[in-house]
Structure to design on (340 residues):
C-alpha cells in the first residue's frame, strides 16, 4: 500500500493560518512576529536616551542631533524540526480514540493522523519558543544546544537583583516587597525610558508576596488606592493575582513546567524569581526561511511553521520546521530578581 503525503506548498498556508498554542511569556512580551526569506537574521538591541530638543536662534538652520545608538548582530537562526513516523502497518490498525467498528480506510487514517501529528508538533515547537523567550527575558541570552548544534545569542545581559539577609521576602518582619518593586520600576524607567507595567512571579515568590504582612495590611487599609488581589486563572499556567494601582503594575504568577533534555521535568521560572517588564517594549520574534532540497532543487519557504511530509521505505514522516529568534530590543526595560 502506497502512502501519498501532501506536498509542502499545499500545506504551508493551512498550517500558518491555524491559531498557535498560547504561551504566556511569548504572548505577553513578544507580540510582534515577522517572517523572512533569509536564514541569517539581523538582531538589533536599542539603547534609548532621554534627549531634549535644543533651542536655537531663528536665524540658525536647526541643530543636527546624534541618532540613538544600537548594536546589530547577525545570527543564523537555529532550526527546530520534530517529526513523527507512521508505518503502512499502523494505518491498518484502529487509531487511539477511533470507534472499534470504524470503517475508515488507511488513506483516511493517514490524513487524520497527519492533522493530529501537526497539532502535537506545533505544541512542542511553541514550548521550545517559550523556553527561548524565557531565556532571553531572565538570562539576557539564548543558548541553542542540540545533538549537532551549539550556539549562543547574547543580547548584552539583563539587569538582576539578588536579595539576601533581611531583604528576602521570606523575612516578613523586615523585608518590604512593595518598596522593592517601586525601586526597581523607577530604576528601569530612568535607564530605559520605558515604563514597566507587569510583574511575573514563580509560584513560590507569588506565595511570599500575596501573604506578606506588609502587602496584606496595605490591602486592608488602602484597598482602593493600592489595588486588590483578585486571583484569576488564565490559560497556559498563568494566574492573575491582582494590580498595584499606586505603581501601575499587574501581578501574575506563572506555574508551568517542561521536560528538559535529561527527561526531567523542571519549572519554567526558577523558584524565587520575579520578572518586571513592560508589555509595550519593542520585542519581537523573527522567523528565518526554511530551505529544502526537493527533486535536486533548493526550495525556500517563508513562514512561522513549515510542514514537511515525506515517505521512505513505506514509512510516512510528518514534521514541522520552525526557525524562531526572539529579539528583546529594549532589554534595558527588564529586571529579574531573586527574592527567596
Amino acid at each position: 500500500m502506497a502512502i501519498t503525503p501532501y506536498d509542502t506548498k499545499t500545506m504551508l498556508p493551512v498550517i500558518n493560518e491555524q491559531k498557535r498554542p498560547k504561551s504566556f511569556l511569548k504572548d505577553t512580551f513578544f507580540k510582534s512576529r515577522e517572517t523572512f526569506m533569509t536564514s541569517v537574521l539581523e538582531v538589533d538591541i536599542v539603547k534609548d536616551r532621554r534627549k531634549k530638543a535644543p533651542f536655537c536662534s531663528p536665524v540658525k538652520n536647526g541643530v543636527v542631533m546624534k541618532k540613538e545608538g544600537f548594536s546589530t548582530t547577525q545570527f543564523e537562526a537555529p532550526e527546530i524540526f520534530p517529526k513523527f513516523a507512521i508505518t503502512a502497518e499502523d494505518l491498518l490498525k484502529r487509531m487511539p480514540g477511533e470507534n472499534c467498528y470504524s470503517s475508515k480506510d488507511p488513506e483516511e487514517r493517514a490524513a487524520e493522523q497527519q492533522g493530529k501529528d501537526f497539532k502535537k508538533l506545533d505544541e512542542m515547537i511553541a514550548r521550545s519558543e517559550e523556553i527561548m523567550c524565557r531565556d532571553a527575558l531572565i538570562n539576557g541570552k539564548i543558548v541553542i544546544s542540540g545533538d549537532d548544534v551549539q550556539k549562543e545569542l547574547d543580547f548584552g545581559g539583563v539587569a538582576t537583583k539578588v536579595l539576601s539577609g533581611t531583604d528576602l521576602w521570606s523575612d516578613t518582619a523586615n523585608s518590604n516587597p512593595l518598596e522593592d518593586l517601586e525601586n526597581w520600576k523607577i530604576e528601569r524607567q530612568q535607564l530605559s525610558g520605558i515604563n514597566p507595567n507587569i510583574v511575573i512571579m514563580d509560584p513560590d515568590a507569588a506565595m511570599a508576596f500575596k501573604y506578606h504582612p506588609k502587602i496584606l495590611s496595605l490591602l486592608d487599609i488602602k484597598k482602593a488606592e493600592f489595588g486588590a488581589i483578585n486571583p484569576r486563572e488564565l490559560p497556559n499556567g498563568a494566574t492573575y493575582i491582582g494590580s498595584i494601582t499606586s505603581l501601575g503594575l499587574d501581578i501574575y504568577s506563572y506555574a508551568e513546567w517542561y521536560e528538559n533534555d535529561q527527561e526531567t521535568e523542571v519549572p519554567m521560572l526558577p523558584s524565587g524569581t520575579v520578572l518586571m517588564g513592560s508589555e509595550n517594549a519593542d520585542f519581537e520574534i523573527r522567523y528565518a526561511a526554511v530551505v529544502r532540497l526537493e527533486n535536486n532543487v533548493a526550495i525556500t519557504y517563508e513562514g512561522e511553521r513549515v510542514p514537511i511530509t515525506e515517505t521512505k521505505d513505506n514509512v510516512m514522516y510528518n514534521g514541522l520546521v520552525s526557525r524562531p529568534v526572539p529579539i528583546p530590543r529594549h532589554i534595558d526595560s527588564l529586571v529579574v530578581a531573586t527574592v527567596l
